[in-house]
Amino acid sequence: MNHPSLVTLERDSAPRTLFSGDQLVEVDLPPGTRCIYPKATLEPLRDPDAAIRYALNHPLGSDPLHARLRPGMKVTIAVDDISLPLPPMRRPDVRERLVTILLEMLADHGVEDIEIIVATGVHRRMKPNEIRHMLGDRIFDAYWPDRLYNHDAEDTDNIVKVGETEHGHVLELNRRAAESDLLIYANLNFVPMNGGYKSVAVGLCNYQSLRSHHNPHSIRNSDSYMDPAKSGLATDIEKLGRVAHKNLDIFTIETTVNNRMFDPSLDFLMKNEDELSGRERALLKALVLSTGKLPQPARQAIFDRFPAPYGMTGVWAGNVEEVHRRTVERSFEQYCVPIEGQADVLVFGVPYISPYNVHAYLNPLLVQVLAQGYLFNMYRGAPLVKKGGTLILLHPCSDKFDHEQHAPYVDFVHRILPETRDAVALCERYEEKYARDPALVQMYRTGHAYHPSHPFFMWYWGENGRQHLGRVICVGADNEYIPKLFGWETAPNVEEALYRARGGETRSLDVTLLHVPPIVMGDVSLPRGVTA
Amino acid sequence: MAACYFDVDGTLVRTNLIQPTLYYLRNQGTPVQTALQLGKALFRAPRMATAELLDRRMFNELLYSAYAGMSEDRLVVLADEVFDNVLRPSFFPAARSLVEKSKAAGHELVFVSGALDLIVERLAAYLGGGDVIANRLEMKDGIATGKLLNPVVAGPEKARIVRDHARARGHDLDECFAFSDSYSDVPMLSVVGHPAAVNPDRRLALLAKAYSWPRFDLTVSA
Question: Which residues of A touch B98 (CB under 8 A)?
């Protein structure tokens, strides 16, 4: 019997409704198509604050937090940035709950020298209103901006060497965090690749330290990067993370959330279209029509307007490895759907949001990283599509960028990518020079732009998808230039894309649809004797 | 190696060309000379205001005519004071960070300014060195004539000067950077491969947006 999240289409099945950026479109897929829907939403913790207190007092592989505190000590709390969850969650954000309880506990134990750092790594600086949303009014008003601030990876005076790996990779971190008596990292783990050793080693480091793992080789060695046990990226980050945990006193807190991305009134977006009630069908139709008619800024405004009602499903604290093992297990429990065998063709709609465009337009480079990177990597065991198979994605791929957040992306797409698509060549020939562009570095430091190295990482992030897939066909692109630049074909509709995937022949293909968002992962097992 | 061409006034410091000039005029040898010079400057003010709108070069020529009769020695001695009292307190908070990042990237620093070379040289030294392209006063027997030597560093002429400088130093202009706050510097910004609008005026901000040039603000701390 099929898993409840798996649906095989029949001849009379309703069209599937997929995201194509910030529009919803109806798509007819052939009978036999296997559709993977998000799993049922895990019940949130009934009393998250009590759960947090319990985790701090009963940590894994560590003394309780209160036992590690002493009056007069210097403590830094680092929190993840707004790149997760997606979209930003309703208040109170998990981080507000965590930091509120931490601050109470620190005050109870006479700790006064406290600073809170938003561990942005080379992401853009968060804006004050975003930090207020994330941490709440009380914390923001008391700490911003002197004792609550964004990490600055380019502030050479406030970056210090912590140590190096046996291979000579140097770890340099935020001075305040590195020189504190205790560093508490409060994670919000949205997907299995978040958290663990990555938190400190990436969120608080500089560009030089990132280079040893944020490169095409680490990504090529990942199968997938959503499965930490088989992620070359996670393995390489762990080496530097161990340096941090060996040299600093770190207390890790990780939390998981369920997949309640949409308000319950929009639950139908994650349901089998054949099982919708009459009212739900009408609402879905209305959404399809309205997103098709409204201008893009209006659509974006609508989606930006509603924070997600995510619920906290777990919280663990203490030793990073033990904590992270639990987090990844809970994350898989929410996302993984068992799948047998791989498809010839994988289909998905690319939605309007990624970790890197909160409150901004999803530019084409981010479409690429969602398609060949994050969504391709939504598997464990084996990729959802066979080696050399076809990916059909839906997105307009407009040549449009947010001029503030994504200033470095414009040059990357229009100036560097036309030179070569080869990730290794980009890394070796262009990355370092570009990462030191003084204008773009300044935009990162004093504006709200991503660091100039970031678009390179976004290209590398798509590398294992690029290496695995035989062809990528983009449906609904409003231009030929961008897909061609990425090495993709275009098709006006899914029928035409499938026809091309068949090579113009009538042979039948195994087609799998990944019905996202919300997030769903394939736990793929292969028949005996078959390799990925 | 590439070069970074920095406009100075309004870009790295919040002063304009008038403030150093006023400092010079206020600090003449005697109170009578000071009053006389300031009076003349006041008389020229309406013409300068018109020139500022019409032609940047004409504005510079009118402004520097106020220096006529000042001795070279006095100009040099007062240059230190002008820098210490007028320019140094006027650096934008993040200006030094931009210059340091440019230097760390291995770029040659070049300060291109309509201000006097005497002052811009001090600014360059303060920022750790670099070439200076600035206006120079004509001297006769150690006394300023009030005229500028060619080339006058202003408006479109800056573009030609930057091109010549890059050629002479063997820089590939496509690899070079230029930073300015003013729409009047669009010609200079347009000749390099990496232009950037810094604390831009409204017209430059619009143009930078249209062409996807980096835009940022040095008025806030990094």
Answer: 438, 442
